Amino acid sequence: MNFSLDSALSFDWFILILRIVFIGLIYYFLYQVARVSIRELVAVGSAAPAAAGQTLPSPSSSLEIVDPAESSLRPGDLLPLDHYTTVGRRDDNTLMIDDGFVSGAHAEVMFDQGAWWLVDLGSTNGTFVGGRPVRARVRISNGDVVQFGRVSVRVNV
Predict the structure, then answer these.
(1) What does the alpha-carbon distance between residue 81 and residue 153 come to, in Å, rounded to a whole number?
(2) Which of 13, 93, 110, 124 is the most buried (most CB within 10 A)?
(3) Does an H or E element contain 35, and which?
(4) For residues 24 and 30, what is the distance between their CA atoms, to the nearest angstrom?
(5) Is the pLDDT reported for residue 59 higher than 90?
(6) Residue 29 to residues 33, 97, 146: CA-CA distances in angstroms?
(7) Is 63 in contact with 146 (CB distance < 8 Å)?
(8) pLDDT in tens, 40-55
(9) For residue 39, what pLDDT is reported?
(10) 140 has which bridge partners?
């Protein structure tokens, strides 16, 4: 076996680089786990009743489809609301709307401090209540018409 100092040195550098990449991947994985965990804890914490006397949402709270646009939904379909509901085109949302104008993570609907609230999550085609764009957290009431992209729903709370 004929080993030269140059090949041994380059092999050591190769192993060192592999170790650094491996450690970097471990830290990236841990960062992603922490980021998702914190997001879930904040979502659960903000949606949970803060005070013992706070009212809970009605179990029959829902969004009724008014105009399904090009989604697979039909007018009159009821989409049930949880105390914290995400709306979007991706499968990981609480309410999945498969219309091309609905963003992957489009909006959040939550029950907080005895009222229902709507937040746009930076969607491409916007979220509207009564035809007005949602720019911050907006309170929604029974009968309000909300539009996610081109899909319109009526709030039943």
Answers:
(1) 12
(2) 110
(3) helix 5-47
(4) 10
(5) no
(6) 6, 30, 38
(7) yes
(8) 776 655 555 544 555 6
(9) 77
(10) 116
Instruction: Retrieve residue 109's tokens.
Output: 């609907």
Q: Are strands 151-156 and 62-67 parallel, antiparallel or unpaired?
A: antiparallel
Q: How far is CA 119 from CA 6, 8, 146, in A?
A: 61, 59, 11
pTM, two decimal places: 0.64
- CB neighbour burial string for 31-45, b if at least 16 within 10 angstroms, e if fewer: eeeeeeeeeeeeeee
Residue 105 is predicted with a pLDDT of 95
- Rounded to whole angstroms, how far apart are CA atoms 62 and 65? 10
Evaluated on CA atoms 139, 133, 71, 106, the torsion sign reads negative
Backbone angles phi, psi at 92, to 5 degrees: -80, 5
Residues 92, 98, 103, 107, CA torsion sign? negative
Helix, strand or coil, per DSSP, at residue 24 = helix
Q: Which residues make Cβ contacts (< 8 Å) with residue 143, sequence separation at least 6?
A: 154, 155
Handedness of CA 140, 142, 147, 151 (dihedral sign): positive
